[in-house]
Specification:
Helix content: 10-25%
Number of helices: 5
CATH topology: Stationary-phase Survival Protein Sure Homolog, Chain: A
CATH superfamily: Survival protein SurE-like phosphatase/nucleotidase
CATH architecture: 3-Layer(aba) Sandwich
Order of helices and strands: EHEEEEEHEHEHEEEEHE
Oligomer: single chain
Strand order of the largest sheet: 5-6-2-1-7-8-9-13-10
Number of strands: 13
Largest sheet: 9 strands, mixed
């Protein structure tokens, strides 16, 4: 079995090592392929950079990876990375994609804009089991908590059919003994997501968008996360809703 680890924070993020370790301990052969530069807020964009007709890829040592794990810096958005992986761009098609651990929460309907979630959804559309993981801090201190929640979510995902769905995990940045537990949660009306703004003079700015009063939605993913719970939400990718009849138009009559 083969696992691809990616993210939207870039190849230098320590969150990659957390997911690589979880996948390796679960018995997967692991390859890391992450954006060469931060791509927060990229959603499921298929943007990338090419040279001589090929996607630009460099072998770079991501921090603290387990021994023997290849890591690649790709000049592409995370969803394009998983798209390319599905067609053998980084070796055999992966059986699993783990995306994250994202620096900052990805909660509520705002997950539409998340590059971390976008990578997982892209994998799902190619029949690859996918889990997205985020920790609610831009400078996390408690990676062990993220690893524990990842292990639990990954074990469940491997035992269940996720067809057409992605498992989205959010983890508070608290010590393992301070974690209140893990709850399945609906999406908040907006939630939270981060985006990276690249300015013309090569400066970068990370913006965090929040639009949910968690006190008004205490049982949502954003509300539970704010109270110290890790959350699990199953997300569906694009699908055709046939519940409501749309008035169809037949083909115009043919002239004889």
């Amino acid at each position: 079995m083969r696992a691809l680890i990616t993210n939207d924070d870039g190849i230098g993020s320590p969150g990659l090592a957390v997911l690589a370790g979880a996948a390796q301990d679960a018995g997967f052969e692991v390859v890391v392929a992450a954006p060469a530069r931060e791509s927060s807020g990229a959603s499921a964009s298929l943007l990338g950079a090419e040279k001589d007709g090929r996607l630009v890829v460099d072998q770079v040592d991501a921090p603290d990876l387990p021994d023997g794990v290849t890591s690649l810096a790709v000049r592409a958005a995370p969803a394009l990375i998983t798209f390319v992986a599905a067609y053998g761009g980084f070796g055999p098609k992966p059986d699993l994609v783990l995306s994250g651990v994202n620096l900052g929460a990805n909660t509520g309907n705002a997950v539409l804009h998340s590059g971390t979630v976008g990578a997982a959804l892209s994998a799902m559309t190619h029949g690859i089991k996918a889990v997205a993981v985020s920790i609610d801090s831009s400078t996390p201190q408690h990676w062990a908590t993220a690893r524990s929640v990842t292990d639990h979510g990954l074990a469940w995902a491997l035992e269940n059919d996720l067809s057409g769905r992605v498992l989205n995990l959010n983890v508070p940045d608290v010590a393992p003994d301070r974690l209140r537990g893990l709850r399945q949660a609906p999406l908040a009306t907006f939630g939270a997501v981060s985006a990276r703004i690249h300015e013309h003079d090569d400066r970068n700015l990370t913006l965090r968008y929040t639009g949910t009063d968690v006190s008004l939605e205490p049982e949502s993913d954003a509300g539970l996360l704010g109270r110290g719970w890790a959350t699990a939400t199953l997300l569906r990718g694009p699908y055709a809703d046939r519940a409501t009849a749309f008035p169809e138009i037949g083909a115009p009559p043919r002239r004889e």
